[in-house]
Amino acid sequence: MPRERQARRPDRHRAGAGRGQAAQGFAPLRRGHGQLKAQCPLRGPRCKAATALVCQVRAFDDRRPGRGASARKPSGLASPSAPGAPDPLVEQVFAEIEATFREPVSAADVARTLGYTPGHLTTVLRRRTGRPLLEWITERRMIEVRRMLRETDLPLDAVAARTGLRDATYLVRRFRNRYGTTPQRWRRAERAWP
After folding, report:
1. What is the spatial distance between Cα 98 and Cα 141, in angstroms, rounded to a whole number?
2. Cys-Cys link to 36, which of 51, 156, 173, 185 (CB 3.0-4.6 A)?
């Protein structure tokens, strides 16, 4: 069997498909490779792999509508994540979270709706906001949980169902981890406060 594989290997590289010609299709991947390599804290094969991955992501991003070198701003202008300049992707993510947080939606569901993979969207959101996607979903749910606890007498099962959480047990666990107290104690304390 190994001999058959060795015999097939030369067939892969047909005439006219040599390394130089095949590499021409990867010209976008080489763009900026030297600059990235100079900035890379890693050395050797790890640096090469890391810069190649970043170049691949850039090339993929360039193929998306409204992206690419023609859509990029000159480096002198503020970046989309700079204070005061709204980031369209972050706004889309927040709008999607706002529209769906009452349902049992996951980070994967939000990413799929916006046309991204969950890992990519989480990474981009963490870089631009300092928090991952799932944390933003949980934060929005907890804001609604606190509002409902303060303004209604609904039991925890109903609050959990209306905020996209699995059940009252999961709600109590998430609430305690985030605020250090149970929802019932928080509700009593909020109502006792004038």
Report:
1. 9
2. 51
Question: Tens digit of pLDDT per residue, the chain (194 long)?
Answer: 455 544 444 444 444 444 444 344 434 444 454 555 555 554 555 555 555 545 444 544 444 444 444 443 333 333 344 456 678 999 999 999 999 999 999 999 999 999 999 999 999 999 999 999 999 999 999 999 999 999 999 999 999 999 999 999 999 999 999 999 999 999 999 988 76
**Pair 103, 164: CB distance under 8 Å:** yes
Closest by CA to 97, choosing from 164, 149, 158, 161, is 164
Say if CB 47 and CB 34 are below 8 A apart. Answer: no
The C-alpha atoms of residue 37 and residue 183 are separated, in whole angstroms, by 51
Yes or no: say if 132 and 97 are a contact pair by the CB < 8 Å rule.
no
95 CA to centre of own chain: 15
Q: Which two tokens stand for residue 27?
A: 């010209």
R_g over Cα of the chain = 25
The angle formed by the CA atoms of residues 134, 99 and 133, to the nearest 5 degrees, is 15
